[in-house]
Design brief:
This protein has about 300 residues and is α/β, with parallel strands linked by helices. It is built from seven helices and 13 strands. An eight-stranded parallel barrel has the order 1-2-3-5-6-7-8-11, surrounded by four helices.
Length: about 300
């Protein structure tokens, strides 16, 4: 079936997941603060040079005031740099009150960042005139049908895009995004399960059964959570840069050239704790050989899940 929602051009719009928690003491020191306007401006310029059009920023509502402040700086900066920004809502892992908390957080976000007087409003990522909000599941205790009913009352209801394939609340979501995943064989000790089977299943299923939903592809350079306090010694090898090239272009195998999905999300721009960051370049060689990198995202010819703390 032809896609109901497709790319505006000949290939998907490239967006990237951004972690806004650096500078907070509970996260590793990467040499900068996510609240530094100059740093964010530099990252935006770097991302634009690589063909990235938007940062999708993890956001936790009032559970993480540090990240909320970082997001405010990002949206204001993006507006000045002709860049886009979107929010990825991290669901609470608490069972009690999860639905009420999600509704309150979404309302807070709308009033703060999507109201007519919000600083940098025009930088927010829109598709077909509606804001796009991504959702990262955690505890699984939220009744998303109730959240959907709440946001439908907004002056401009947002598109809600959830992780992986449709599950318990298929009618609550407008789309789904692929996320870093080694596939059904699980995590290999040598990192050789880079996600080929997972992406093939995701794209084929979305195309065959959910062509009326927004499809957001996923691309990653590797995975290594050994530096994360919550790490489980999980790895996806960079394969000298081939993992990024293969995941970035995988959508081409399952979609006709004249029917591309609207977005591909790079996962991630700067999650250094789980070893998915590409802001320092895409690895070209695994050890024991010297590691080299390139700062260029591949361009199209025409132009247990990993979790966040």
């Amino acid at each position: 079936m032809p896609l109901k929602y497709k790319a505006k051009g000949k290939s998907p719009q490239v967006i990237a997941l951004y972690e806004a928690w650096f500078g907070h003491p509970k996260h590793m020191n990467v040499g900068y603060s996510s609240q530094d306007p100059a740093q964010i401006a530099s990252q935006v310029v770097q991302a634009k040079a690589q063909g990235i059009t938007a940062f999708v920023v993890d956001w936790y509502g009032d559970r993480e005031p540090f990240i909320d402040k970082s997001y405010a700086v990002m949206q204001a900066t993006a507006a000045k740099k002709d860049f886009q920004v979107a929010m990825m809502y991290d669901e609470t892992d608490q069972e009690d009150g999860a639905t009420d908390e999600a509704i309150a957080d979404f309302t807070m976000f709308r009033d703060t960042y999507l109201s007519p007087k919000s600083p940098g409003l025009h930088a927010y990522l829109n598709y077909q005139g509606r804001p796009v909000i991504f959702i990262f599941p955690k505890g699984g205790h939220t009744d998303w049908s109730k959240v959907r009913a709440s946001v439908n009352k907004w002056p401009t209801p947002p598109f809600l895009v959830f992780e992986n394939l449709p599950g318990q609340y298929p009618d609550a979501f407008d789309g789904y995004y692929a996320w870093v995943n080694p596939g059904d064989k699980g995590w290999a000790s040598d990192g050789s399960n880079w996600g080929e089977q997972y992406l093939d299943s995701f794209y084929r299923t979305m195309q065959a059964k959910y062509s009326d939903k927004i499809i957001v592809g996923g691309a990653w350079a590797g995975f290594d959570d050994s530096k994360a306090p919550w790490g489980l010694n999980r790895h996806i090898s960079t394969r000298c840069g081939q993992t990024f090239t293969d995941t970035f272009n995988f959508w081409r195998k399952d979609f006709p050239a004249d029917d591309p999905p609207p977005f591909v999300m790079l996962e991630t721009w700067n999650d250094h704790e789980e070893g998915t960051a590409i802001e320092g370049g895409i690895p070209r060689c695994d050890s024991p050989q010297p590691e080299h990198s390139t700062n260029q995202v591949p361009q199209s010819p025409a132009s247990g899940q990993p979790g966040k703390s």
